[in-house]
């Protein structure tokens, strides 16, 4: 497997990024410029307003370092990349698949893994904290998820798959509150809500999903797939549908677990959030930094990849899955092996 | 008689591909069809070394040898374009002074007196290889020079950086036939857009595309994906 390089997150809105030779320079009003060589970086993500010089953009494009701009609230705005990588034949094949019958085969596999990994989150919680949680409830939902696993393999069409996915997600999130062991007064989930998040847990999940989405998106671009043409998620201008597809199997393992462990280890507190008049819940800037730091740390932890049978850092999962997906579309593999956390 | 020109500008392949193809067919398809390229230390060092031989605006003369760097090449009969690291032009004695020189052996160069024989030299990192891929690339360069200048060449050389020495290469009929055959296959695959399957071998550990190619996984597991989900499910149910 290839190496996991760093992602540089710029969270100070007044920052400006420039280039000096092979280095990126980060200038901010309140401190000395930061300098680092481009070759140690995999991607750069700026949150809130941050400027970048054209020559830095060029350097990033040449070196295959993705440079993304997010809004303050984590919403994706734009990214810079150079010539489209990969090959037009692969993308054409992707489009043909997306339009044809076989799209369902891929969609099934993303959702199978999504349900399986969500279920493992529930099962692990029972295993690790059985005495402190309402195991009955969690067990019950885990059993439902098992049934959906079976079911998703047998249904034919995309709409059925979407239906099962929706039901499974409701089941899973309905047990989610049982997995929260600290300050349950402040940390609870009232169903999934996103625009805007209406409770702290949703706010944390949304932000973490954004971090994941960026990585999946640039992984797809790296292997030459078009992140916008999905199999399960329908096309919509501006929506990275294939990235959303591929994220499904990684959400529970990479994002949900992180949010749960930060809450349960009391690394996050009720007053790290701002609650607006209309109930919208926002992360305070320090919490965002904290979340990013935790995310980066988690990316460096290692696991044995169930299909590749190799030890890899967790941060490479988006890339390894994107690569396996590209290889399947290209015809090297018969069927796509999604990431199944055991 | 001039060779038949089979190819046109927009179906030429890259000359550098022939060494990839001769080394590993899949490597060639990953680089040239899938447009995947992974820099590793080896390729980086290769570029560093090329750097010196790579200035197209610089020619020098050493005694009877004129050295031209980064010479653009094209060969319509075999269908490729590219660049020669170094082509030396060796001054040859005219027939008047004794040796027999036909117009097929040497050429006139613009702005220079006398006749000159092109002599391609390809710079390589490392040491001589177990396979013939360096020779094949050199021979292809020579064949392009022959077409472009209308000459017949008999010899070129490979320069190996690690050993610091030249190995001369005779452009045999066998080597030429191999170049033809390789390019013919490459044209076919390129047209069909086929990426060849991975075959894991001892070459793989020196291959800069190892991480992208995943030869071990793909040659071992390509048939095992079908049962992958069911297998998981069976284990979970059991
Ligand atoms: S890793 Fe092996 S099979 Fe793959 S391209 Fe390289 S040499 Fe060929």
Automatic annotation (TrEMBL), chain A:
Biological process terms in GO annotation: defense response to virus; maintenance of CRISPR repeat elements
Cofactor: Mg(2+); Mn(2+)
Binding-site residues, Mn(2+): 165, 233, 248
Its EC number(s): 3.1.-.-
Entries under Gene3D superfamilies matching the protein: CRISPR-associated endonuclease Cas1, C-terminal domain, CRISPR-associated endonuclease Cas1, N-terminal domain
Highest rank taxon of the organism: Bacteria
Keywords assigned: Antiviral defense, DNA-binding, Endonuclease, Hydrolase, Magnesium, Manganese, Metal-binding, Nuclease
Recorded GO MF terms: DNA binding; DNA endonuclease activity; hydrolase activity; metal ion binding
InterPro entries in the cross-refs: Cas1, CRISPR-assoc_Cas1, CRISPR-assoc_Cas1_C, CRISPR-assoc_Cas1_DVULG, CRISPR-assoc_Cas1_N
NCBIfam families linked: cas1, cas1_DVULG
Protein family per UniProt: Belongs to the CRISPR-associated endonuclease Cas1 family.
Record function comment: CRISPR (clustered regularly interspaced short palindromic repeat), is an adaptive immune system that provides protection against mobile genetic elements (viruses, transposable elements and conjugative plasmids). CRISPR clusters contain spacers, sequences complementary to antecedent mobile elements, and target invading nucleic acids. CRISPR clusters are transcribed and processed into CRISPR RNA (crRNA). Acts as a dsDNA endonuclease. Involved in the integration of spacer DNA into the CRISPR cassette.
Quaternary data: Homodimer, forms a heterotetramer with a Cas2 homodimer.
Listed name of the protein: CRISPR-associated endonuclease Cas1
Species the sequence originates in: Paenibacillus sp. BIHB 4019
